[in-house]
Amino acid sequence: MNYLLTLKFDGSGFHGWQRQQNALSVQECVENAVSSLFGSCDHVTGCSRTDAGVHAVGFKCNFVSTKEIPLANVISGMNHFLPSSIAVTDAQTVPEDFNARFDCVSKEYIYRIYNGTVRDPFSVGRAYHYKYRLDEEMLDRQAKDYIGIHDFSSFRAVGSDVATTVRTIFNAGVFRDGDTVCFRVEGNGFLYNMVRIMAGTLIYISEGKIRQGSVPEILASRDRLCAGMTLPPDGLYLNKVNYERF
Asked: Which is the catalytic residue, given 10, 42, 51, 223?
């Protein structure tokens, strides 16, 4: 049986998804829970690597087991063995050749900015605090320039090594929910720190450090120094993962 799980997790206490030698990861906790529930676990495949401190609302992962357990019991059993900061919200069986990472066609991230003048203790570790008023309508117009097929060299961490820096962004925008301003972006893939730099560039535009309408120029420059700062990981959420098969 090939099981596909949907996870929510608070990434504050983890060094990302991927298993680490000397640090606790979400993958390690999930694999331990699978082993406890199913009796063994060779490997759990995640849809994406997430950075340390990054959260998830709709993370997907899959694993194969010879043991068949009713899906409702998979959810309750996994949650029994998982720490309180990780929850399985859905379970389904998928074709034997399904892979949570390689079958993914798009991912949606949300970067949350708490935009109150005074810090909110309940958003510490879960949103970036920016006390100066943000114009979400203006920032939404700027974010639209990320949409399309572009070389995102200007929006990746210095020193990261990938085969290609070209990515397709299907949707991007900014909206406000009370005192929280959210940058939402969906693409076929993301470079290391890419979303955090995209959000940081919007902050720089708001501050006047980067001119409005200059995102196309920053993309064309392929120069990291032309883009904005890398915002902290605690405001970033993997919100949704999409598959053609489902």
From this structure: 51
3-state DSSP assignment of residue 150: strand
State the Cα–Cα distance between residues 243 and 153, nearest whole angstrom: 26
Q: How does DSSP assign 57-72, residue by residue?
A: EEEEEEEE-S----HH
The one-letter amino acid code at 117 reads T
* Catalytic residue list contains 51: yes
Give the tokens for residue 99.
């892979």
Q: What tokens does 159 get?
A: 């020193």
| pLDDT per position as a tens digit, 36-89 | 999 999 999 999 988 899 999 999 999 999 999 999 999 999 999 999 999 999
245, two tokens: 């098969």
For residue range 101-111, list pLDDT tens digits in order: 999 999 999 99
Answer whether 21's CB lies under 8 Å from 52's CB. Answer: no
